[in-house]
Structures are given as structure tokens and as C-alpha cells.
## 1
Amino acid sequence: MSDRDHREAGGFRFKDLKLVLGGGGTLKQFGILGSLVLILLLFQFLTGGLTLSSGNLINVVSQYAYILILAIGMVMVIIAGHIDLSVGSVAALAGILVAISMERWNFPWPVAILFGLLIGAVIGLWQGFWVAYVGVPAFIVTLAGMLIWRGTNQYIGNSATVPVPQDFTYIGAGYLPEIGPDTGYNNLTLLLGLIVVLAIVYGEWRARRTRRVMGSEPVPLWVSITRVVLLSAVVSYAALLFAGGRVGTSFPISGIILGVLVLFYSFVTRNTIFGRHIYAVGGNSHAAELSGVKSRRINFLVMMNMSILAALAGMIFVARSQASGPSDGVSWELDAIAAVFIGGAAVSGGIGTVTGSIIGGLVMAVLNNGLQLMGVGSDRVQIIKGLVLLLAVAIDVYNKSQGRPSIIGFLTRNRRDPGEQPGATGGGTGASESPSPVVPTSGTPETVRPSAATPN
Amino acid sequence: MNPSQDTGPTILEMRSITKEFPGVKALDKVSLTVRAGEIHSICGENGAGKSTLMKVLSGLYPYGSYSGSIYYQGSEVRFKDIGSSEAAGIVIIHQELALIPELSITENIFLGNEPTRFGAIDWIQAKKRAVELLARVGLSDDPDTQIKNIGVGKQQLVEIAKALNKSVKLLILDEPTAALNENDSQHLLDLILGLKGRGISSIMISHKLNEIEQISDSITIIRDGKSIETLNVKADGVNEDRIIRGMVGRTLENRFPEHTNTIGEVFFEVRNWLVQHPQVAERMVVKNSSFTVRRGEVVGFAGLMGAGRTELAMSLFGHSYGNFISGQIIKDGREIQVRTVAEAIGHGMAYVSEDRKALGLNLLDDIKRSVVSAKLSKISRGEVVNDISEYQVAEKYRKSLRIKAPTVDDGVSTLSGGNQQKVVLAKWMFTDPDLLILDEPTRGIDVGAKAEIYGIIHELAAEGKGVIMISSELPELLGVSDRIYTIFEGQITNELPVSQADPETLMRSMTSTKKKVNAV
């Protein structure tokens, strides 16, 4: 504890900054989150304030919500040690079938949505079967699926576009409605912002209480307060921006769907037996099986879940573009996979988080959007996105091969040094005896070198 | 045999080789002298340092990573990799064959050493040479046959043909007959004798003492990383008993905690357990094994590596290994089915694997998640895991098992081997098992942690649980068990109460099927 006291007495250090932003256990996301903030500010500057304008923010959310939904499913697939290349085609097939079901068979739109989810489930059943029970690598199964479902989409739709009714477009192009007194802002969006702020305060309070029940010291109070104030300010500012856009626009419905899914799947991956088992299977499937985990079932469900989410993403896209077309969803899988890896997931499985992937997806979205605002052509945008992905994962691989934690360790290490040095020399903190206490270790892989290859 | 060999020139001399791994001294001033044209065997228990010594010799551990010196054909050599030792004519054939199953015999023989003509591989020349080499090892198979289509015995011969192609002068064979049946073994041994007739020296590592006795000219015994003695087979009149004495002849130090177990009635019984090799249908890895475990009893299973101990344990634990053929498990008086690991856990079985890192732990996890991972339902409501109970459970085990880690949030990969093993033990203790199967529970663990793990084993037994302990270390088995079974080639060969067991008797039953003493 003397270390902690010393730190508090020693005043502001970078480690504390990370505490504020990362919150005790989730330092992992600090690096990507930091990059996201930096990129946002950079483009805000380069575009002369266009990036953080109401219209643009609303646009970014509705334009990328479906990719982020895919990223949620994809991170679970990747944690389990697989990959899904078929999501774009699954989305396209679900989109066209849903469009046709309303156009020709006169399904009411809520039924059509359920129908679309069912299509996703059936496709997932098929792909999950091959991956989990036959043992065909997911790369192959979904590569096949990519062709099969794309072809089916074009066969059914005759490679033509099918329009969807106005009601249906609400899930992709709709906004929170205007209700209540005229405040000059969208009231529901403001309310949403308020709810989020309250949730942040409650979450922080609960985390502190949990730490205390567990018998360990929560982070210093000022860290909690700073964090809550900082996050609340960001959320409030965002709420004002979303609520103060052009009349008729506000926070997009697709963004709400995304938010609900993020909350739900974060909970599933972190707090349920199923979620734990996904990490177990991806981290070491042999050990998982010898612990009684039914790895086939896990693989099956993860693949199936991905297809259902892909179908949902397809419907949102169709709703947004008001028609289903033969080339919907082309190369979505790549955007989703890129988001997951930028978000800190490991190619070999076992590592990754839903929130990390969302942040990774937002990095790509902001990058894309910012470059477009600046008038950079799509050719160069692709080059830049490709380089960003390569760099992010290269840093990850480099760090792992060095036995260090992932990307965040690298990003924070450079900034850590100036902050850490005076403390270490001046005070002789406990941290100076070994580097491990200052390296964020939460959830990050420590690929320990095979220690002392046991002779014989 | 040529009597002049007894005084033949020295081809190899390894002088006071010391090799350390972090925390372990694998070799401590080991010396080995091999004369030209002799078959020299190296004997020792698992972990004694035999394979490490051979890796030093073959350059797998390059010069500089060990201390000591190697003299070969009269001058000092400093091998920097396998290639440089092979260039000098030293070829090692590993226990796990280094052949590529999808390639043909010819392709394998010349892999990395392809004869070329104008820059392209000269297959005609290669095939001609392959036929010659195959003839020398007594094989008449088509050299175009894929390796996967010939048996293990023939694969071993192809390995030797490959070595002959490299104009080998000193052949190192690491457990060459471990995977072979009797006929193939005999054929291989004859071949080694034949090579000797042509002036090729061999170093052989084997656990099969009868084979060693049969073909060796001299034997070096290694124990705990030290070379103990070198025996001249003919002059010293060496027999199996003499070798065993050398291998186990350490004084049993008082490394084992005192304990008095109150042993109850038989509650777990296995009858005629028969398991087939997962790939090779005709090979039975566990043959009609029957045994019993009493409450509060520690039952030792002694057997050398590859004897079928792990195979037996894993096949009992939810049929996790091989193809189950037949057999019964009777627990508390009635037969139970354990077709899956979940069923086995449900019936109160727990299996601590011998390979902690590959099979026991998810190295990406932290301590708390690892501890609860085999029975998440115990701390969950419905599907939702309770973080706080998880933390409390893990914290309880961290304290009671003295897992050395600042918090249970630390990753298991940051722990030492001993502490990782304690996490694995905690994980299985958390499932409330009646029967714990511990497979090499102290492998790769330092002495202090070993004693702690023995203590935990006795505590578990004192709670009335049955413990099966599989180990290669005889002193450990003798110090911890109440009763010991020996396994050899998938068969239980002997059963002894610990009071009647001694290392030599055990080693005899672990190296042959002959039942010499059966005192039960």
C-alpha cells in the first residue's frame, strides 16, 4: 500500500491518467481509445470543424452502424479462433429476401424483420454445422458461404434492386422522434444523453463498491470523480451535437440498435458462462475440453450468432438505402475483421473484447469519414486504411514476440517513460524493482516463452 | 563381436558438460566417452538428462549455450546447429520421427540434401540411391511410397537410411523402439548391430533394459543430470538388475511430508479397460486394465514414458484419449458412464494433466478465471457468472494453497511452474471431486513447491477423496503413495502396497511384463 500512498503524494503521473481513462481493469482499450480521440481531434482541425458537427456525427453513426454490428459478432468468432468471410453475402441475402417478402408477399415490416433474423439463423445453422460438427475450417466454410449466399442473392433478385416500403426504412434511416416542448434540441436525444450520464455515475459507484466487497482497494476517489466528470462531459457534448442537428434529424435509430447490442454482447462475453467458454475455447481448446467445455457447441453457437447479426446488419443497410441490391455488403467482412483486429483481438484467438472492436471500428469510420470530408479520393482512403490496419496489428505482433503485452503496452510505454522516470529515481517506488507492475497486464496476453524446456 | 573394440580408439569424448535452464541444472558436469565401432547405451530415469545431453552433442543446443567441451575424432568440435554436426557425421534420430508423411520415401531421404543436376533435382539419381540405401537397412519397399503408408517400424528404418545417406559415423538413437512391436524392434536392433559391423558407432537411449543388455558394448548411467558410471557390458557382467541399481540408486531423502492416511473402503473400480490407439487401429494403448481406489488412499501409477499411463488416465476421464473399446467403471457400487468430460466431472472425477501448459491452463486467463473454469455453474446464477464469488473463491485458494501472486487478477502465464500447478489443483479442487487423477503433478517444479504439492495431496486424501498419482519419479511415488500399480506397454504388470515396494522391484515391473513378485 505504501506504493499507492507514494503515488498519491507524488502528484500527477501518467499511470494515473491511464487509471482515469481506463478504469482499473480495462487499461487494454486505452491505446485504441486514445488513438480514436487523437484521430478525431486531428480531423476536427484538418476539416475546419466539420468532423465534430451535428450533421457529420449523425451521418457517421448511421453510415457505420451496420459495420459495427458485424464487428460485435466478428469479435466473438475471432475470440473463438475462427473467422467469418461470409457476413457481407449473408447480409445481402437476408436483405433481398426481406425486401421481397415485403414487396411481393406483403409481409408487414415487423414480421419481415423477424423473417430476416430467421434467415440469418438458418444460414448460421448451416455454417455452424460444417465448422463445429464436421470440422471444416471456418475460413473455408465461410469462403464457400461468401460465394453461395452472394450467388443466391443475385439469383433471387435477378441481379436487380428491390425497393422496400417507407415504414421499414425507419430502422436504417430513422431518427429519435420529436416530442415534448420545443427546446431547440431533440428532447429524446437529450434524455438519452442524460440516461447515459447517470449510467456512467452508477457504473463507477458500483465498480467501487464491488472492489470493496472483494476486499481490494478501489482506485483513488479523485480518479473516479475525474473519470466520471470527463466521460459525462464528452457524453453531454455529444448529446447536444446529436440533438442540435438539422430539424428532423437526431440520434439515429440504427445507433440505438447498435448501442443495445453492444451492451448486451459486452455482458454476454464478460459475465456469462457462454462468454467465458468462448474465451476458453479460443485460448486453449484442449484445456477447455478437458475442463468440460463443449467446444463444438460453442463454435456452433458463435458461428450462428454471427450470421444472425449479419442478417440484421443487412436489413439496416437495406432500410438506409431504401432498396436491396445485388452488390450490397461487398467487402463488409473485411471492414468488420479490420475493426476487430484494430480493437486488439488476437489472430490466434482467445483475446478480444466487444468494446475494443467497437472502438476499432470507430477508428476506421472516423478515418474514412475524415478523409472523405477532406476530399481525399477513395483510392487513397483505401491505401491509408490498409496501412493503419497493418501497422496496428504489426505493433501487436511485435509486442507479443517480445513477450510484452499487446498494442496498448507499446502505445503507453513511450508516454510512460517521462512520467515514470522521475518517480523511480526520486522516490524509489516499488515499481522500480521490476518493470511488470507498470506494464498494463489486464487481459493482455503474456506469451510466456516456454520456460525451461523440461529435459527429456 | 570384435574383441579389439574394447580397446578401440575413442571417437567421441564429452567432457564435463553442464547445461542450465532457468532454475534447473539439466546437466551437471556430465562426461561420456564412446569408442569407435561400439554401441553405447545411455540409461537413466525420465528427466535424468539423457535427451538434453544428446541435444548438446547434435548441436541443437549450440556451442556456447553449455559449458564443457566435446572432442570428436581427436579434435575439439563446436557445433553451432544440427547441420554442422551432421556434416561431421553425427546424426540423431529423434523419438518423434522427423519424416514428412505426405512425401515419398525418396523425397524424405533426400530432404534438405537433394542431389541436383543443372540446378534441378535429379530424381533418377535420387531414386537409384534410395533403393541402395533401403537395401542396406533391409527394406524392399517402392521408394515412391508415401511415408504415411508404411508402418512405424519401417519409418524408423527410413530414418536410418536417411542417416546413412549423410555418411554417418556416429548414430544417435533416442528411444528407437518405443513405438515398435517386438518383431520390428528386433529387426531394428539387428540392423544397429549390422551397422556396427561396418564401423558405425551408435549411441542408444532406451528404457527397454533387455534390449540394452542385448546389444550394448558399454552403458553410461545418468542420474539427476550427473553421469554416475560407465559399465562395460562384458567385462562387468552387466545385467538388468545392475542397470536398475545404477538408475535408481539414490538415497531417499526425507522430502516427503509425514502422513497417516485413514483408508476407507473401495469406492472406485475400473474393470478390463481396453482402449485403442486413436490412429493405429491394431494397437491397444491400454490393455484390459483393472484396478481399485479406496477412499482416503493415494494410489501410485508407475510406468515409463509411453507405457500407457496418461492414455489410461485420459481415457477414463471422459474418453479424452484414443478409441474406447470396452471396460467398466464402478463408483460407489454402481456402474457409471463417462463418455464426456462433463459427465466425468459430474461423477466427481478430476484430471490434472501432465502437460500443464498445453492441456491444463488457458495461459491467456488470469488466476481467478482459471480457478473457476471447470465448474462455472457453481458460482453462477443461471448463465450469469458472479464476479464477486469468483473473486472470493479464487482468493480462498490463493491463500490456502499459498499461490505466490500479488492478486488473483494476475495472469497465470506470469506464474512459476509450481504456482501454475497450484492453480490447476485449485481448479480441480473447486469441482469437489471424489477422485483426483494427478498426472505427473510435480513435473518441472522446484523442490520446495513439490513438497507443498505433496502436502496438498495428503490433505485431499485426508478429506476422504481418492487420489491417483501418475509419476515417472519412483522416489516420489514411494514417498507419497499408499499402494502402487506398475504399467508396461499398456498393461498393469504389478500391484504392491508401498511397504513392499522398492525402486528395483518397481523398475523391473515397469520394464517387462513378467510378474516377478505379487505380494498382494
Note: Residues 1-6, 516-520 of chain B have pLDDT under 50 and may be disordered.
## 2
Amino acid sequence: MSTIAATLRSNPLHDWLDDHPRAATAGRWLSWAAVGVLAYSVLILIYGKSPLHAFQEIWANTLTTSYGLQDVLVRMTPLLFCAMAVAIPARIGQVNVGGEGQVYAGGLLASGMAITFTSWPAWLLLPAMALAGIAGGGAWAGLAGWMKARGWLSEVFSTVLMTYIAILAVSALVYGPWRDPTSSNYPQTPQFVPAARLPHVGSTRIDVTIFIAFGAVFAFDWFLRRTRYGLEIRAIGGNPFAAQTNGVPVSRYIVLAMAAGGGLAGLAGMAQASALQLHLNTGLSPGFGYLGFLISWLAGHNPRLIVPMTFLLAVLASSGDILQITQGLPSAIVNVLSAILMMIVLLGRMQRKAA
Amino acid sequence: MSATTIASIAAITLALMPSILYATFGEIVGQRAGVVNLGIEGVMLIGAACGFAAAVVTGNSYLGLLAGAGAGVAFNMVMAAMVISRHTNQLASGFAIYFLGGGVSMLIGAQYIGSDVNGLGQFSLPGFSWLPSPWGEVFQQDLLVWLMIPVAIGIWWLLFRTRWGLRLRSVGEDKDFSYAAGLHTARIQYQALAIAGALYGLAGADLTLSYTKTWQDGLTAGRGFIAIAIVIFALWSPLRAIAGALLFSLAVAVGLQLQAQGSPISPFLLDMLPYVVTIAVVLLWGRPKAFASPAGLREVFSGTSK
């Protein structure tokens, strides 16, 4: 019955696409991009602005000027870290929703080092801060992973709830004991000493952690494909029960993968405080953790796709600010658009599988 | 602690409960039908924004409640269409709904920043009005507070005492079997998510129409996720959910009361209380009782499409 129906429904275009998987993939990506551009245009039109004009502004202010390109790259660093924070646990089926909280936890510990050991030289203080950032984010996510591995509490909820706790902890400190007594209005820690500031690349605003971010993506890709641990991770991702039966320590991998992901998010928090803001305040992250979640899902948790997806979302995030300044459009349009992109990709992926 | 303090904590606790409890009810109905919606937060924000907008425009907060519930249904149908008809991943779709709701609610709410509403009227039921001060004031509450227990019983009755509820739960336990038994599984799940959407919308509208009475971005502050945690604690029963929501609201109310009394503890540490309490409670009571969860939760079912 179903074969008859399938024959009746058969379509020369679909047959051709089935025979040419690469063309099908390219076509799928192109159609998603087209729907995305269309959705963005409709959103801009709703606010009575010209989409063409808006796209011109975005093009002129992101990719074609040095300042615009820097802005995109500066955003890419924390986004890459936060996407990896979601992608690494996702490869063994763990959903880390708390990247944002892990950024704050890492930023908190790293800033604590920066304002405590002000007399340390840079070669000692910066690595110590980086390790503190990794430890903070790693512990925050690792704790959630541990509760999951013991079968106590799903990481989906614990990571979300712990995000609120981490942000409130930063607030409590910067409004309380860590508050800079000389800064009267804005609650923040004292400015970091020069030894606690990450060096930048040349004279740009891009800091050196961008190399660590790209390095982490490529290292994870190599790790997954070329090491026995990567094989075991892929085995757990495929079927955790089968992996457990074959002697893979699934619980340990859950804790470690969560901690590794959280550690990278924590490093993003350290870099935000140390390279860009130069102190800790409650605005450490404007939602990098959440965007990282979107990126990882858009990329299917595949490190090779994370780089282009991060680039895309960084341009998009940048475009939100540009439209807000040049066209007076609300920046929340970008949140709406990222959500629509994610829905398009989810729908597209499922459609392929069902067909 | 003086009687006034206890009475005021009790009053705040009761006033805080609906925003969390209706969301929990909605998630129980949805999960009993086999759909996890992690996008509650987004649907609540839409309900909060639309309810508030409607109340500002019409000047009537009850119309605001209706608008919030309606917007919740409409928005939850997006989730339903994705996971039921298109078989997308439930967790990821929930998050897409969360982001979308957050963004759209900001766009709607931006026009109403600075507006305020009278809010839902507070009244006492006849049985409580004779109580002496300060206890009488505890029971000066609005409609959504008074409806909590009737709605809980109503949902319990729907799920466990009606034919429709039996079908809904059977879909949540085993969709293939239910389908083979002749149930229209997709229709039942759509119905469940419509009811859930209305309840999320009410929960969100309660926040803007009764609690804050103004609009601010992201004002749900994780209540949607806490509601999901309470669903686990409540073992998917609407009656036990009341206890969970009570505990969460009590944690918030105690924090607020301590702040009002000028406690030396940082207000931010007190604000952590509900999240810490939620994690602790689920750890203590919500642990491995997997048998209580609907067996078919999150399963993708293809039904007639194959």
C-alpha cells in the first residue's frame, strides 16, 4: 500500500535529489538561507523599514569595514566557547542549557583571582585566571553532570536553575564585598591591574583567546575522530546502553563532558572580564550562553559546522546593534530571527528524515 | 516572628503561587500526553505580554487574562505543530519556542513599558472574611488564587476520571499501542497542548496583571523551568503540584519578607533561595521514581505518515 502511494507521489525532482546527495544538501542549505533572509525582511517590514536598505547597512557595517569585521570576530570568541559548551555534552546526549551560568561562574572565579593577587606578574596571573575560569565553569557544569550521572536530577533543569544562581552570586559580590568603593554609581569590581588584562591581537579589539577558541573546536573534532575516547563518546552518543554494556564508563563521561564544556564557557567568562570589560559586573554576558545553545543545535553539534554557524550568528548579533543604531529598530528582532532560524533548521532536518 | 510577619509571608506566598502553579498544571497535561515542552517560559512571556497589552488597551484586567490565555494557546500551537505534525526534537523545539517567545514578548512589551494596569481585583471568600486582622488580609486574594484548587481538582478529574483523560494518558504511555487501538493520537496531543498553552498563558498573565502590574523584559525569571522541576517533584499529579508550588512561593516570600525587614543578608542571596530550594526538593523527593513518568515521553511517533 505504502509503496503504491510512494510511486504515485514520486516526483522527478525528488528522484534526482536522492541520486545527488551533495546537491540536495546544498539546496537544503540554500533554501534555509532564503527562508531566513525572507523572515528577516518580513520582520524589518513590520517595523516599516526597507529591508534592502537594512541589508545594505548590515553589509557595510559588518564585513566590509575593519571595525565591523573586528566586532564580528570579538563576538565569535565567546560564542565559539559557548557553542562548544553545548556541543561536547550533546555528543553523549546531555543537554547543557546553562552555558550562560557557566560563563558567570568562570568570570566570577577569574575576577576573584584578578582583584586578590594584584601584585602577581602577568605570566603568572593570566594563566591562573584562565585556570580559575575553567575551574569555575567546569565545576558548575560538572556538578550538574554529576547529579545527572547519579540519576538524581536531569541536567536540563539543573543547568537552567544553576544559571540563575551563578548570575545572582555575581550580583551579590559586585553589589557587596567586591564593589569598587571609588565607583559611585555602577556596581562593579575595581578595574583589573594591567597584569590581569589579556593581550589583544595587534592593535585590534580581538583578544588572544580567539586562538584558544578555534583551537578547542579543531581539537574536539580531532579528538572525536582520531582517539579511542572520541570513539567511546560517539558510541555513547549512538546508544548509551550498548556502550555501558561494552564497558564504557558512561557516568564518568557524562561528568567529564559536562565539565569540559562548562570549562570552555568559564574561559569565555574570564576573557570577557579580562580582555574587554576589565572588571566584573552583572552585565558580563549579554546572552552568549543562550546563543551558543542555538549555534550548537544549528550545527548539529558537529565541530566542523560550529565555526560557520558561529560566524553567521555573530554577524546576526552584530546586525542587531547596527539596525538599532542606524534604523531605530528594536534589537529583540535578532532574538526572534535566531529562534526562527533554529525552527527552520529543526523542521528541515526532520523533513529529510521523514522523506 | 510576629503574627504580622507570618501573615504577610502567607499572603505573599498565596499571591505568588498561581504564576508557577498554572504553568505546572499545563506541563502535567502536556507531559501526560507524551510531550515535554521546555518552552513554557516563552509561552508564559507571550501570555504575560499579550495579557498586559490587552489590559492596558481595554482597561479591564479580566479581558487581559482571557487574552493571555488565548495568546498562550496560539503560541503553544506552534510548538504542537512542530513536535506533533513535523516530529521535531522536543527539547530543541522547546528551546526554539523559549527564544521566540522571549524575543516576540520584548517586541510586544516595548510599546507598553511604563504603562500600568489596575490589576485583578482582590476579594475574600465569605468563609474567610470573619477572620481577625492580620489573618483576614491573607485571604484578600485575586481570582486566579481562588481558582487554584478548583482547577487542580478539575485537571485531576479530567486526567484520571474521564474517558478523554484515559485516552490522553494512554497516548503518553505508548503512542504506537494507542494508535493501533484506534485512537487519533495526534488530535489528542493537540488538544492537550491547547489546554497546556491556555494554562501557561494564564500563568504569564498572572505575573503582569496581579504581581508586577508593569511590563519588564524576561519577567518570568525561570518560573517556566521551575514549573518543569515541580512536575517531576509532583510525580505528574496536579494535586501534588500544589505542594511544590507552595514550597517555591514560600521560598520567594521568605526572601522578600527578610529584605523588607532590612536583613543584613544580601538580597541577591535571598533571591537565590527559590532556585536552591527547587534543586534541593527535587533531589530529596523527586529522585528515581521513573515509573511515575509517562513512558512515552519525548518519543517521536510517525503514525500515519509511514
Note: Residues 83 and 162 of chain B are 25 Å apart (CA to CA).
